[in-house]
Amino acid sequence: MRAGNTSPDPSYYTAMAATFGFRVTATDGAARRGEMTTAHGTVQTPAFMPVGTQGTVKAVLPRDLVDLGTEIILSNTYHLYLRPGDRLVARHGGLHRFIGWERPILTDSGGYQAFSLSARRTIDERGICFRSHLDGSEHLLTPEKATDIQANLGSDIAMALDECLAYPATRDEAAASMERTLRWEKRCREQFARLGDQPGALATAPTISNPGQAQFGIVQGGTHMDIRVASAQATVGLGFEAYAIGGLSVGESPETMYEVVGATAPHLPADRPRYLMGTGTPVDLVESVARGIDLFDCVMPTRNARNGQLFTSEGRLNIKNARHADDPAPPDPRCVCYTCQHFSRAYLRHLFMAGEITAATLNTLHNLNFYLDSMRRIREAIAFGSFDQLRQEYRRIFARRSVDS
Amino acid sequence: MRAGNTSPDPSYYTAMAATFGFRVTATDGAARRGEMTTAHGTVQTPAFMPVGTQGTVKAVLPRDLVDLGTEIILSNTYHLYLRPGDRLVARHGGLHRFIGWERPILTDSGGYQAFSLSARRTIDERGICFRSHLDGSEHLLTPEKATDIQANLGSDIAMALDECLAYPATRDEAAASMERTLRWEKRCREQFARLGDQPGALATAPTISNPGQAQFGIVQGGTHMDIRVASAQATVGLGFEAYAIGGLSVGESPETMYEVVGATAPHLPADRPRYLMGTGTPVDLVESVARGIDLFDCVMPTRNARNGQLFTSEGRLNIKNARHADDPAPPDPRCVCYTCQHFSRAYLRHLFMAGEITAATLNTLHNLNFYLDSMRRIREAIAFGSFDQLRQEYRRIFARRSVDS
């Protein structure tokens, strides 16, 4: 039995939302199939969360997401805090109601965007001081504030605030940053418990409460395996509902990322979902599932769609490539999505070259279908004990940069 | 009985597509309810055609248009000729198949855009010589070429090439332009007949044929009533399947436009649909229907949607207005469209301010629903003999510039 492969004492979970749960229903090696329950419904895992940064998954509507079988989306706290504001969202009944999405939502902490998008930012023990990328206004994102904002948004899963470590980082930098992240996470957890214990009774935020919300901790430590392990053990000690691996897909090689995931996952509780943040390519998905990851989010399927890059059963395809100009075939002959069932590469290239909004929509529908269908295939393969075959298939398909370059 | 209110001798229609037909099913004053049959199905009239300039109605998908009850769309010959090219479209089975739209399509002649969008253009008896707004390449759009291109596109209804008269125009300018339009229309009709008589057998365009296509003539004459009447009579003499009124909504007042429509429509055959090109506001629709118009197209519902202006049962609404920032009401509380059933003004304003693509989509769905539902109400009111009440309601609602300014 691997170290850390069980939960800490149940007393750690005193603040745990009664509605949150997770159970593993099948395993194949370290890959797990499971079911995560939240206040807004159940999510089959491994699951991919389309990213709805500003309260909408770009270029597609909630009804499209439902049709695609999307069970959970991610939304960005930094963006929604700045515009339209978390208090406005709370006044409108929370994020689900405001954006017309009735299924689960996970919100990040806002830390990564405050670090990467804002005009100027400084980080100290209090938190992240930054200037809005919209109007230059100054804000201080503390662990307590990140927790409050996410309570106002009313997401099903809130993330603790972590410090973003630049890549590459020395061992000392990584260790110091991980320690600060731990201190911030502890404050997040305490604030989370206060909101849960005294709904509506906080002097600092009188109207904030977080019924039904779960909170995930985040493991940091750069690419230093021993720091990752220490971070995992200490974060688990804080007793979150579940745990994420953060600070990857930031410039390191895929192999390094897989190595970090493989070294970290066994130190996270086996009876809790494991979430790899901000990743990744189709190969990243299967390689991470192979190492015990249950949850993913990434802008890749949606952003690449808007840039004309499609994921297909034959590999990546650049729809703007001139060779598609007269091609009557669908993007992916084996795909059953709306786009592939109704439109040719020639038409999609035309829409893209003409700068039409519907190019973004049709490409996004296809790429999201590819990602969500990949997760369905992964779950089925795990249940059938054939996951490794699927993993090898994805490695082979996506070995080439693209099918048309 | 009004002059010209019957069709010319049936022998004029030798080239008429067997599949094209029109019958009036109810009248209320000069307003008519009817049914227009084309090669791709039947259209209830009065009808509004959403504009799909580049082979897509901007920001919405064919399945959305079907859900909205769209029975016919318009597409622009100028744009499709330049990109992706009418021959490419023909190779892909025609426009319907290429763009995934199985219902009727009307194409314009390309003349208006060649005149208004191209970099440099000169007009002489041959046609319109212009430079592409895309790459500066030089093209000559003749009546014959406009007819060939539309045959390649395979639209259900093709439009004859007319000359675009600048507004305002003197009587002499309007008369000369109208005469040239007539000569061009005659050439269009002759080319159309050649394509129909000898499918696939033209030396100049060996692969072009137009089975099932109908061709409409266009009445010109600016705001000079006698020239309009002369144009109508002479155009009808050319024996098109039906007739349009062109050259309006170009700067004249609404009252002047209604006057021209009212003076022209009676000179067009009562047993043929009458199409008012490029118009208009909701009030334009009811005022023109009141004068015997059956078909409309306009970019207003789609373009205004992308600019944040919504048409509602209470009038125009600018969703970007700050007063909507915290408003939980739908854009139109009486509307049953997807947008109004699921989203608040506050959310739609947020999406618009955030520059999200879904703002364009949701606003377009709403505005198209407003226009298409308006046409349904118009048709019902004509059948019930209550059209004038509906007309007055629209005049009252849209008397104000907007509900929120």
How are the SSEs placed, and which strands pair?
The structure is a homodimer of 405-residue chains.
Chain A: E1 21-28, E2 31-38, E3 41-45, E4 47-49, H1 62-67, E5 73-75, H2 77-82, H3 86-91, H4 95-99, E6 105-107, H5 111-116, E7 121-124, E8 127-131, E9 138-141, H6 143-153, E10 157-159, H7 171-197, E11 214-219, H8 225-237, E12 242-245, H9 254-264, E13 274-276, H10 282-289, E14 295-297, H11 300-306, E15 309-312, E16 315-318, H12 338-342, H13 345-353, H14 357-384, H15 387-397
Parallel strand pairs in A: 4-14, 5-6, 6-10, 10-11, 11-12, 12-13, 13-14
Antiparallel strand pairs in A: 1-2, 2-3, 7-8, 8-9, 15-16
What report would you give on this structure?
The structure is a homodimer of 405-residue chains. Chain A has 15 helices and 16 strands. With 405 residues, the first copy, chain A, is of the alpha/beta class. The first copy, chain A, has two domains: 20-298, TIM Barrel, CATH 3.20.20.105; 307-397, no CATH class. In chain A, strand 1 (21-28) and strand 2 form a beta hairpin. The relative contact order of chain A is 0.14. Chain A binds chain B through residues 54-63, 79, 83-84, 88, 91-92, 98-100, 325-326, 328, 338, 342-344, 346-347, 349-351, 353-354, 356-358, 360-362, and chain B through 54-63, 79, 83-84, 88, 91-92, 98-100, 325-326, 328, 338, 342-344, 346-347, 349-351, 353-354, 356-358, 360-362.
